[in-house]
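Service request form, structural biology core

Requester: graduate student, group of Dr. S.
Request type: structure prediction, single chain
Budget code: on file
Notes: please return the result as structure tokens.

Sequence provided:
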Amino acid sequence: MQFPLAVNHFKQVLARDPDHVKAKAAWRVRAYVSVSLCKQSNSKPDSLTRALDDVLQRARDLEAKKQAGNEAFSARDYEQAAEMYSQALAIDPELGSFNSILYYNRGAARFQLGDYKGSYEDCTQAIDLNENYGKAYAKRAAAALKIEKVRERERERDCERDCDEDCEELHRVPAG
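Core staff response, request fulfilled:
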């Protein structure tokens, strides 16, 4: 069986170049297949083959949606990027570390769209799935700052409106 050998090659590539795109994608597919097969391990051989085909198709779909989201993000089409990441998340909501990346990516797209609350929530989801995800902490902090700035502006507008109403009342009071 060549699978253990392939796994060893992926480990070597990733050890030398952690950002190697093809090796990272293949490693995610391998991890996805392993997790999914473990869930279905008490199946019969025919159903296991069908399950493997289904798992591989979902892995391909996941990678395609993520890639489409990345391309849309690079093209600054943040709405499309967020949509692609959402579709990828819907494929298999139980993929912890892979979904943490998708949540972060969608949070980054939402941040660019000015949806700071959505960005904050997505980054929180990413952190819940991977507590060591530094980029998610940083983006969540940036979203929190933006949310606070929006609140400050709203308070200032309320204060200005109240002040304007008070000024109008003062002008209505007859002099002396």
